[in-house]
Amino acid sequence: MKYSRLTKEQFEELHQEFINFLATQSITADEWANLKVNKPEMAEMELDVFSDLIWEGALNKAEYLEHFAPKHMYLFRLGEEKMNAIVVNVKNDVDITTQEGYTWLRENLMDDSVEFLQADKDYSDDKNLDKFKMIEQGAVITKGELFTYFNKLIN
Fold first, then answer.
1. Would you say which domain of life the source belongs to (predicted)?
2. Does 22 share its domain with 89?
């Protein structure tokens, strides 16, 4: 398995897609029920293959990632060749993961305690695995509104 198994909730959301996936494997509902009982390792393998397919599709489509920490906001544009990063550092006692802290940041972007950094990062040989590792560390896929906003602000 390349990524991670989808959660029970994710499988429930993707119920129809999973049925379609099993159909492409020529596995009927009865055969699936039988697999789960009599060959659980085969059923587990099908769940893993489906999970990887879903992750691969989502990672291929992802254009932006965001990750918030108490003192840092990491914003990434996922380009074809490399990712562009904008980091917003808060150098005071404000926690931007709270509503109050985030509001403070919005209202005080030009304060001396707010620092903006930019960098480009090359992908490894496996671009989607790089993206996945960032998600595992807490980043979320977004539409890029914050990246676009800060990119315009600092450039």
1. Bacteria
2. no
Q: List the chain residues with pLDDT less than 70.
A: none
Checking 28-31 for CB contacts under 8 A at 24+ apart, the result is: none
> What is the C-alpha separation between 130 and 84, in angstroms, rounded?
13
Claim to verify: residue 119 and residue 81 sit in the same structural domain: yes
**Dist. CA 155–CA 151, nearest whole Å:** 6
CA torsion, ordered 7, 85, 64, 69, to nearest 10 deg? 40
Task: Print the domain residue range for 33.
Answer: 8-61
DSSP 43-101: HHHHHHHHHHHHHHHHHHH--EEEEE-SSEEEEEEE-SSEEEEEEEEE-SS--TTSHHH
Report pLDDT for 134: 96
Cβ atoms of 124 and 130 within 8 Å: the answer is: yes
Within a domain: 20 = yes
**pLDDT at residue 9, rounded to an integer:** 94
Express each pLDDT in 13-31 by its tens digit.
Answer: 999 999 999 999 899 999 9
Q: Give a yes or no: residue 1 inside a domain.
A: no
Residues 46 and 76 in one domain: no
